[in-house]
Specification:
The structure holds 2 protein chains of 2 kinds. By secondary structure, chain A is α/β, with parallel strands linked by helices. Chain A contains 9 helices and 10 strands. Chain B has a domain of about 150 residues: MetI-like fold. Classes of the chains: A alpha/beta, B mainly alpha. The interface between A and B is medium-sized, with 29 and 22 residues. Bound molecules: adenosine-5'-triphosphate and magnesium ion. The site of magnesium ion (MG) has 4 residues of chain A, from helix 1.
Chain lengths: ~250, ~220
């Protein structure tokens, strides 16, 4: 198997909530350094897919492999894999009782067992990466949405993950703040971070993604490079959807 | 005899009563947290049997008058278990176990008010559920609960006088002993009342200071 080539493999993931079949067999492989953008209508299972990758939702069927090691059915080792798979949420989910700095260092200390002084240096470094070093001593309630999201990116980065999952990281932000977060993400992509990004930001997807996946009804309907998406006939459903989202016709 | 002279003469008596009262309240509050907090966690995160046991406990201790609980434990349950315990110990335990029933509901409300995303974020970083509870949920729950929890102090302080009924040498017991020795009634009871009010006020001030100390922006701990 060419496991070396793919750092993350997602194989035939199925997930239902009661009667509702949300994921109906999703398969894809991710190479190191790729940025894959997932787009698609609301309720098609994009968030569920990301959560199935780090097992926040347990898939009913299918497998996830990280560096050839099985993430699904890994028992307690899931806590190890979750350190290797970062996650950034639409509503940030910063720890409200901790400063920006402590938000970033807490998992280093409590999960990785890092020496507090070392963890602090590392956390400050990550905050610098996202332009939030000056806000290290501030609490989440004192940050703008864009700042909070950058801190949450730093928090994910601090664990030195192999891949980061972004679930609509800018959907809760107004355009100005969206831009500052997308800039950070673009920088990460350029530095070679592997990222899976659920987003409605077509500009970002087209300029940063190595691949775009269009999801609908619980499966990946269409996929390809941004160029293919712009030119090919095949991305018809996707363009149709984008047309609806952006208000521009595609025909 | 002058009231002042009486007070000076019986001063050590009053002081020992104050210490006994504070001892009752402090032990009851500590027991209340030590029992109430795990019960709250059990009620929120536990499986059905745990939740049921906690539910019955809360129902029992909130459903009976303090005096009934006190007699039940002092004359019934502890002797029935073959335990001959000092009245002070029984008083503190009953006040504490009863307080735990109320406090568990304060803590439960606080834990449940924390958005689900906090635990999801903790888990996504590789924390176990227990680590998430310890590092994220509890520190937030304590801050949210503290203003409501502070009200337990005056409640338990005033309730503590009921330990008079089983002969704990607390403030009210001491006061009535002084009254029966000196035949001075009203002024002595007024002094007793004054001391209770003072203890009440002082304790709340201390708790208020603690609230301010651990206050974090974005958490309404009521210290403002
Ligand atoms: N824990 C859950 N329990 C029950 N139903 C759920 C749960 N999580 C998601 N669903 C349902 O599964 C479907 C897919 O949800 P999901 O959040 O994955 O969609 P999405 O593609 O991310 O949509 P959006 O663009 O609105 O975020 C929805 O109908 C949702 O209501
Ligand atoms: Mg979603």
């Amino acid at each position: 198997m060419a496991d070396e080539e793919y750092i993350l493999r997602v194989e035939n993931i199925h997930k239902s909530f009661g009667e509702l079949e949300v994921l109906r067999g999703v398969t894809f492989d991710v190479k190191k350094g790729e940025t894959i953008c997932f787009i698609g209508p609301s309720g098609t299972g994009k968030s569920t897919l990301l959560r199935c990758i780090n097992q926040l939702n347990k898939p009913d069927d299918g497998h996830v492999w990280l560096h050839g090691e099985e993430v699904t059915n890994s028992g307690n080792r899931i806590n190890y894999f979750r350190q290797r798979i970062g996650m950034v949420f639409q509503n940030f989910f910063l720890f409200d009782h901790l400063t920006a700095l402590k938000n970033v260092e807490i998992a280093l200390i409590k999960v990785r067992g890092m020496d507090p002084k070392e963890a602090r240096e590392k956390a400050l470094y990550e905050l610098r990466q996202v332009g939030m070093e000056k806000w290290a001593e501030h609490y989440p309630a004192e940050l703008s949405g864009g700042q909070a999201q950058r801190v949450s990116i730093a928090r994910a980065l601090a664990m030195d993950p192999d891949v980061i999952l972004f679930d609509e990281p800018t959907s809760a932000l107004d355009p100005e703040l969206t831009r500052e977060v997308l800039e950070v993400m673009k920088l990460l992509a350029e530095q070679g971070m592997t990222m899976l990004v659920v987003t409605h930001e077509m500009g970002f997807a087209c300029s940063v993604a190595t691949r775009i996946m269009f999801m609908e009804h619980g499966i990946i309907q269409e996929q390809g490079s941004p160029d293919q998406m712009m030119s090919d006939q095949t991305f018809e459903r996707c363009k149709n959807f984008i047309g609806k989202v952006t208000g521009y016709g595609t025909d | 005899m002058d009231l002042i002279d009486i007070l000076i003469e019986w001063f050590p008596y009053l002081i020992s009563g104050i210490f006994a009262t504070l001892g009752l309240v402090a032990s009851a509050l500590v027991i209340g947290v030590l029992v109430g907090l795990p019960m709250a966690l059990g009620q929120v995160y536990g499986k059905f049997p745990v939740r049921a046991v906690v539910g019955i406990y809360v129902w029992f201790f909130r459903g009976l008058p303090v005096l009934v609980l006190l007699f039940l434990f002092y004359f019934g349950i502890f002797p029935g278990l073959g335990l001959d315990l000092p009245a002070f110990f029984v008083g503190a335990t009953v006040l504490g176990l009863r307080g735990a029933a109320y406090q568990s509901q304060i803590f439960r409300g606080a834990i449940q008010s924390i958005s689900e995303g906090q635990m999801i974020a903790a888990r996504s970083l590789g924390m176990t559920r227990l680590q998430g509870i310890r590092n994220v949920i509890l520190p937030q729950a304590v801050r949210i609960a503290l203003p409501g929890w502070s009200n337990e102090y005056p409640n338990i302080l005033t309730d503590s006088a009921i330990c008079y009924a089983i002969g704990v040498a607390e403030l009210l017991t001491r006061t009535s002993q002084i009254v029966s020795q000196t035949y001075v009634t009203m002024p002595i009871y007024l002094v007793c009342a004054g001391i209770f009010i003072l203890l009440n006020y002082a304790g709340l001030r201390v708790l208020h200071e603690i609230e301010k100390k651990i206050e974090v922006p974005g958490f309404g701990t009521g210290a403002a």
